[in-house]
Design brief:
Blueprint lengths: L6 H14 L21 E2 L2 E2 L4 E6 L19 H6 L7 E3 L5 E3 L2 E8 L2 E6 L13 H14 L11 E7 L2 E6 L6 H4 L26 E7 L2 E6 L12 E6 L3 H9 L5 E3 L14 E16 L9 H10 L2 H8 L4 E3 L23 H10 L12 E2 L2 E2 L1 E7 L4 H15 L3 E7 L17 E7 L7 H8 L14 H12 L3 H17 L3 E14 L2 E2 L16 E2 L2
Parallel strand pairs: 3-12, 3-13, 18-19, 18-20
Antiparallel strand pairs: 1-2, 4-5, 6-7, 7-9, 8-9, 10-11, 11-12, 13-21, 14-20, 14-21, 15-21, 16-17, 22-23
Helix pairs in contact: 1-9, 6-8, 10-11, 11-12
């Protein structure tokens, strides 16, 4: 049972109510995109050409990549992957462990050599064989065309060789997480022997074939020769609907049959017998970096006082409607080897927070409600952005929590992301930087830990480069090849950062899929990548 909402956050809930309270009263919304005329599909002895599902997505990647779903275009591969057009050599299971997919097996013959055996009989949508040579060509095409290959923790690939159904990848130096990196939708295998047009001609191996793609969505039809089962649907039309209220109304009025990433406040509208909801905690987390160069936060006691003063659970229950997992470190409990089950963090305790502030010399001596020292009130500069709907609400809740322990907070809320000009590494003008992102896109802990508290991390603007113990853990993590030892180092690095008050992770967001009764084979995956698949079905 979710606990009763606290008084201090009821006012904040009005922000959500403005957007969602009117949803149920609308009967319709905008017209959908033009439907193509797919080839009728016959599979398993039953004609499925008339089986159609319309799927609404708030995060259709093609919408920002010129409407295309070519995996080599930025993050467009998420659409290639989510809508079962393309597949990778390997993938993550529900426990975020790497397992074979297009490859029936993969092994390491030494620290620099990975061998992948492709499943027999895999064909591209055009009938061409997906053998070792085709996989090699696809990976090389991706590395040549995509700027992102340099961003995915550096693949370190030296050469790729192919023989029959065998692909051998040799790295320049040991890369213990190459398998994890190849799970990224960027590396969906496509037929590189034909010209790939991201709008009409992305030739993958998946359960569905692309008919057309635009910034409004895409249409796919069943792959009659799919290598790993029989698709249940004839046609799936994906509509890009980025506005939360419009997406909610579309599911309510029957314009769509399932929806990805509805606003949290709308999910209770689909709790009846006519709908079902699939939810999973993901690694999309809200992270606070505390600036140790700040005149306030250079004191460890002040940093830990802030950590004790945040009521994380109240925020999750009251403003996220329970669709979140309380966080200690960067990774939810599903990451059993290095996730939150291995960590501890300061518990919510107002009196403990006030005591730590007092130990640091901060007390309310003039009775104005805020702590002061040497005649100056503490006033923290808090930076975040509004493009993630949870972050402005978290900012207001944080401001309220800090007032309860006597700390004044000024909110600086941008639009699309952290203000890197204001948050320079050597700046003392900011105190707390808050951002939200998928912390384990490749299932490995190094990327996020290094980015947030590493010596040269993109988000590591808080002064942690001088902590030799912490940086020693991260340096060792970069080189360690043993999986168990990597997990141990990840736990040590996170716990050190938490204990020193370098960072506070507020929550892990739960993502949800909502669907009409009769939709099956569609469930939220912890990677936030898997959606449409060979078993997706809709029996009206």
């Amino acid at each position: 049972m979710k606990k009763q909402k606290s008084t201090k956050v009821l006012a904040l809930m009005a922000v959500l109510a403005l957007g969602t309270g009117m949803v149920a009263s609308f009967a319709g919304c905008g017209e959908g995109s033009t439907e193509s005329n797919p080839t009728p599909v016959t599979s398993g002895g039953a004609n499925t050409a008339d089986k159609k599902m319309v799927y609404g997505s708030a995060a259709y990647a093609g919408a920002i990549y010129d409407g295309g779903v070519d995996p080599a275009m930025g993050y467009a591969g998420w659409s290639t992957y989510r809508y079962a057009i393309g597949e990778c050599l390997v993938t993550f299971n529900e426990n975020m462990e790497v397992e074979p997919w297009l490859a029936k097996s993969f092994t390491k013959s030494d620290d620099k050599t990975w061998v992948f055996e492709i499943n027999d009989g895999v064909k591209f949508h055009n009938g061409n064989a997906c053998d070792g040579a085709a996989v090699k060509a696809s990976l090389e095409r991706c590395m040549q065309k995509s700027d992102r290959t340099a961003d995915v923790n550096n693949l370190l690939i030296d050469k790729i060789e192919a023989s029959g159904n065998t692909v051998t990848i040799t790295t320049k130096e040991p890369n213990p997480i190459l398998g994890n990196l190849l799970c990224d939708p960027l590396f969906c295998i496509v037929d590189a022997s034909v010209e790939t047009d991201g709008h009409t001609n992305v030739i993958g191996t998946g359960a569905y074939k692309l008919v057309s793609a635009s910034d409004e969505g895409c249409t796919v039809v069943a792959n009659q020769s799919y290598w790993n089962g029989t698709p249940k649907m004839g046609t799936i039309e994906v509509k890009s609907i980025t506005d939360g209220d419009t997406l909610t109304m579309a599911l309510q009025n029957g314009e769509i049959d399932a929806a990805q990433e509805l606003p949290l406040a709308s999910l209770n509208l689909f709790s009846g017998d006519q709908y079902s909801i699939s939810t999973s905690a993901t690694s999309r987390s809200s992270n606070m970096v505390l600036n140790t160069r700040s005149k306030y936060l250079s004191d460890k006691n002040v940093r830990l006082a802030i950590a004790h003063g945040i009521d994380k659970q109240d925020f999750i229950d009251a403003l996220m409607y329970g669709y979140g997992e309380l966080a200690h470190g960067f990774f939810p409990q599903k990451f059993s080897a290095f996730g939150d089950s291995k960590l501890t963090s300061p518990e919510f305790n107002v009196e403990k927070a006030k005591e730590l502030l007092k130990q640091a010399g901060w007390e309310d001596t003039d009775g104005d409600g805020f702590v002061d020292k040497d005649g100056e009130n503490m006033k923290l500069q808090y930076y975040t952005y509004s493009s993630r709907q949870d972050l402005p609400l978290l900012a207001q809740a944080f401001q309220s929590d800090m007032k309860d322990i006597g700390i004044d907070v000024e909110l600086n809320i941008g639009e699309t992301g952290p203000d890197q000009d204001a948050l320079k590494k050597d700046s003392i003008q900011w105190d707390i930087n808050v951002w939200q992102m998928v912390t384990a896109p490749n299932g490995d802990p190094l990327y996020m830990i290094d980015s947030a508290v590493g010596r040269d991390g993109y988000y590591a603007t808080g002064g942690t480069e001088n902590d030799t113990e912490l940086q020693g853990y991260i340096d060792a993590l970069r080189k360690e090849t043993d999986t168990a030892k990597r997990a141990e180092l990840a736990v040590q690095a996170q716990q050190k950062a938490i204990d020193e008050g370098y960072l506070i992770v507020a929550f892990h967001k739960e993502q949800s899929l909502a669907m009409k009764k009769g939709v099956t084979g569609l469930s939220q995956h912890p990677t936030d990548q898997h959606e449409i698949n060979v078993d997706t079905d809709f029996n009206k």
